[in-house]
Every structure is written in structure tokens, then in C-alpha cells.
Amino acid sequence: MTAWYLLAIPLGGFGAVARVFTTQLGERYIPGGAISMTALINIVGTALIGVVAAIGNDVALLVVGGGLLGGLTTFSTWMVEVDTLNRRGLAVWACAALVVPAVLGAAAYALARSMF
């Protein structure tokens, strides 16, 4: 299993780079900008982790789920964006940005996992 980390680690880096570029696109073209795109990325990524968990084995979950999709989805960026909203005095938006993606992500994971 240890050798699989050698694949999971660079895939995590690739996923993180993909997230950065996707978030930058969101800043230009999506209403709500970066925080909306981060939420969308996290929800879709969580659904894809559900698919991998349903149809893959432990290695697939480590390499694809923990590596690629773990790098794509991000807790830290999400929390920085929520904190930024809060510091700007937008506490209600910060709460929504915290709760809505968490609930939708959990639902997306459960739905995707149940479908496969």
C-alpha cells in the first residue's frame, strides 16, 4: 500500500492546481465569484469521492479519492473564504457559505454512493 502514496501525492498536487485554475475561472464568470466556485468544486468533488468509494477498492479510494479529489476539494480555501465574508461584516452570508456547501456535499456524496 505504501507505494500507492507515491501516486496519490502528485495527484493531490494536480488536483490542487486544477482547483486554483477553476476558482480563477469562477472569479471571472460565476455569480458570487471564488466562493461560489469553491462551493461548487467541493460539492462535485465530494460526489465524485462517493462514486470512487462505491465502485473502487481501498487503493482507488486512496489514490483517486484522497489524492486527486482530495487536492481538488479543499477545506482550507473554503474556511478562508467564509472567514473573509465574516470579516467584511457579512455574517449571514458567511453562515450560508459554511452550511449550504456542507449539507449539499454530504447529500451529493450519499446520492452518488447509493447510485453505484
Task: Write a structural description.
With 116 residues, the chain is an all-alpha fold. 90% of the residues lie in helices and 0% in strands. Helix 1 (2-29) runs parallel beside helix 3 (58-72), helix 2 (33-55) runs parallel beside helix 5 and helix 4 packs antiparallel against helix 5 (91-115). It is globular and about 45 Å long.
Quaternary organisation: single chain
Helix content: over 70%
The succession of helices and strands, N to C, reads HHHHH
- Please report the number of helical segments: 5
Could you name the ranges where pLDDT drops below 50 across 5 or more consecutive residues?
none
Rg estimate, integer Å: 15 Å
Task: Describe what is shown at a glance.
The chain has 116 residues and is mainly alpha-helical. It has five helices and no strands. The mean pLDDT is 92.
List keywords for this structure.
single chain, 116 residues, mainly alpha, 5 helices
